[in-house]
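Table S2 (continued). Query chain:
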Amino acid sequence: MKTNISLLIEQMGLPGCEKFRVSKRLIAMSEKNPAALVPCFTQFRGLMNAENQIIKWTAFKIIANLSTVADGRQIAAVIDEYLAPISGPVMITAANAIVGAAKIAAAQPVLAEKVVRGILCVEHARYQTDECRNIAIGRAITALGTIGKEIAGQPSVVNFVERQTSNSRNATRKKAVAFLRKLATRQ
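Corresponding output:
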């Protein structure tokens, strides 16, 4: 017999607004009670490769939320696949991976170094436009700031953020400056 969660996952294949509604419901469930969705981890992992972008982004968000309660081996087994979209070509998928990866690193500290290396790849990623890359870099700066002060102070992270103080996107420059100010007050 299928669980209610499995039925919801199947409903993600429905057309249009219904798919979006179900996706939002599953994300909310994963935020409020991630342990209830852990038994469906493999199904969510499979959805990370869905053709439909809403389904794909939903899977990334849910897996990040599940990382707070899932077996570390499950998360470790998916982390390379999870980080892969950061290199491009779809900026929104990369942004979901960046934000989710930071949440994973906070929940699974043993994966933090790998996550940071994956996030830092955004600087050389290939998206539809350079502006897309600059937006993703801004997301990366914000995400790196959420992992922890030990990560934020790493030379590779600081050097990355310092380079972004001259980013052509104003919002990204501001995020870099704010990150470095916050880091300076922590030390």
